[in-house]
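Researcher: Next sequence.
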Amino acid sequence: MPTIPTFTAKGRPTTEVGSIRSNIKIDPTKSMAAALAPIGKAAQDFYIKKRNIEEKLIADKALLELKSDADKIIYSQKDNISEEDSINNYKKKINPLIEEKLSLVNNRRVKQLIKSNIDLDNSENIYKLKINSYEALEKDSLINVNNKISSMLSKYASTNNTAAGFALKARYRNQTETIIKNYARDFSLPDNVLQNHLKAAKANFLIS
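Model: Next structure:
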């Protein structure tokens, strides 16, 4: 009967295979997180951008309403010749409206947006109040000057041509000239404008 050859295993396949497998280091969890990271960042960026747009819109609507209120207050002071009084009246009326508007806003960032823009708007509004007050002062002063000149002309025309009357007429002319010069100085009128006013006054006296 033939002899069946036997073979002796020289290696340890189980151990060798195990050692090969232990060299493979793959972390499927980390790989997936790395793949999803850009998607998560894009979603976060979109949310922040959307939130900022929403908050800006809410703040702008509140500011638009406050601007409308401020414009009405400014208009109510357009004939106030006192700059200080005009500004104080504005602050007394607008500040409660601002506080009321802010009390209705719960979002801290929206509140800050409103406050920041209110400071800018108030600076612009106070400048407008100052301009309006000066223009009102200039307008009222001109009316006052014209009334004074009209009064002098009326007195001049009603004064008789006696020695005493001529003295009075000279005084009325001099007073009128002083009134015009003072007005020109107060409002820094150019010299050519002053001379035109003086010539016009002299012509009115001659007509009288």
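Model: The chain has a mean pLDDT of 85. The radius of gyration is 44 Å.
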